[in-house]
Amino acid sequence: MIGAGVVFWNRGLSLLDLILCASFYAVTMLGITLGYHRLFTHRSFKCGVTLRAALCIAGSMAAQGPIFFWTACHRRHHRHSDEPGDPHSPHHHGTGVSGVLYGWWYSHVGWMFSHAPENYVRLVPDLIREPQLRMLNRYYWLWVIGGILLPGLIALAITGTWAAAASAVLWGGLVRVFLVHHSTWSINSICHLFGESPYETEDRSRNNLVCAILTFGEGWHNNHHAFPTSARHGLEWWQCDVVYGIIRSLSWVRLTWDIRVPSADQRVAKAKTLQSTSSAPTEQMPTQRGPESNSLPSTIQQGKAILLGARTQSGSRR
Ligand SMILES: [Zn+2]
Ligand SMILES: [Zn+2]
Question: In terms of residue numbers, what domain contains 23?
Fold first, then answer.
C-alpha cells in the first residue's frame, strides 16, 4: 500500500485501473460472501457444481485462505462466539481503552498470527468429502496468483502496453486484495463491537451499516448470528443485502434453490424489543449456537401469539 501511494502520487490512477480494481473487488468479495460464507460454511442455499466451483475459485482469489481453512475458522467462530475458543473475538483482552483497542486489533488482524491450526476433519467433514473441493483447496495458491495477475493480462490485452499491465496488477490485484481483506475482517472486529443488536444472541454481534455496504450485506451480523443458516442477512426491507438479492435472482433462472430464510415466527421469537414487551418464555427459545429449528415448541407458539398481540397494539417493533 505504501508503494501504491507512491505510484498514485507520481502517476495518478487510470480509469482502467479503477474499473479493474472495482470489478475484482466485487468478484472476490462475492466469492467470500456468497461462496465461502453463505454457501460453503452455512449451506444457506444450494446450487450446481459449476457455480460451486466458480464461487470457490472467486473466494480463493480473495487470498483469505483455502476453502477448508476459512470454513473451519468460521464454523469455530459460530460455535464459540465471544467465548474461549472463538478464534477472533475482540472481547476478553483486558479492560479500559487499551483492552478495547487491543481486542479490536486482535480480532481484525492479530489472531491470524497466533491461532492454533484447525482440525479440518472435525469441522468441515462435509466439504472434505467433495473431490472437486479437495482439488480446488489443494491448488489454492494458483487461484490467488491468478487473481493478482489476471487484471494485468486484461489491461495488456486492452492497451498493449506492459506499463498498463503492471499498473493493473498493482490496483486490480494487490490493492484490491488489501481492500477486500480489511472489509471482510471488519466483520470480525467492528461487527462484534459497534452497532445495534436487535436480536437475542449468546454473543456480542452487532449490525453495522457501513460494514454492510462494504461487504454487500455481511454487516448485518447480529441478524446473521441470530439466524446463521439464513441466506438473507438484511432482514428488514431497508437493510441492503446485495448478496441475498443475487442469490434470489439466480433462483429465478434455476441456478440456486432451497434458499433458507427465517420465518416470521422465528424472527419474532428472537426479537429483543418484543421479548421485553411481554411475558413470553424466553428461557425456552431455540439455541443460538446451532441451525435454527423449523418448528418452534408449543410454548413458543403461545408466546408468539402474545407477542403478535403486543405488536398490533404498539403498532411498531422498534
Ligand atoms: Zn461473528
Ligand atoms: Zn457466519
Answer: 2-257
